[in-house]
Design a protein that fits this description.
It is a single chain. It is built from 2 helices and 4 strands, in the order E-H-E-E-H-E. With 106 residues, the chain is α+β, with helices and mostly antiparallel strands. It has a single domain, classed as Alpha-Beta Plaits (2-Layer Sandwich), CATH 3.30.70. A 4-stranded antiparallel beta sheet has the order 2-3-1-4. A hairpin with a 5-residue loop joins strand 2 and strand 3. The longest helix is centred in the C-terminal third of the chain and has 16 residues.
Length: 106
């Protein structure tokens, strides 16, 4: 996946706060979930990031449109909620990429 500010892509950044001893389990569950939905219409790509202190997992995903993302949420709401017990707090928001610096050729 390449971050892009071209086009009208929608970016979802979802911050999961978790306990350090549950961080890897949350990551493993999220990976299995993504593997099961990776052909979902409108999904461009997704990445997971883990904090080094074990307290957060960040999901960064790009969608073709807000409508594609909303359709996905309606369809998979229950499966996403099943991961909540591993997260003390979940904070998803939609964003637009407005600036991108990318070093070319190192």
């Amino acid at each position: 996946m390449r971050i892009s500010c071209e086009g009208n892509l929608v970016t979802v950044i979802n911050v999961f706060e978790t306990k350090p001893e549950q961080q890897q389990e949350l990551i493993d569950q999220w990976i299995r979930f993504v593997e099961s939905i990776k052909e979902e219409p409108g999904l461009i790509g997704t990445t997971l990031h883990r904090s080094t202190d074990g307290t957060r997992v960040i999901n960064y995903a790009q969608w073709r449109s807000k409508e594609d993302f909303e359709s996905f949420v309606k369809k998979y709401h229950e499966q996403m909620e099943a991961r909540r017990p591993l997260a003390q707090r979940v904070d998803p928001h939609l964003y637009e990429v407005v600036y991108l610096f990318e070093r070319r050729g190192s």
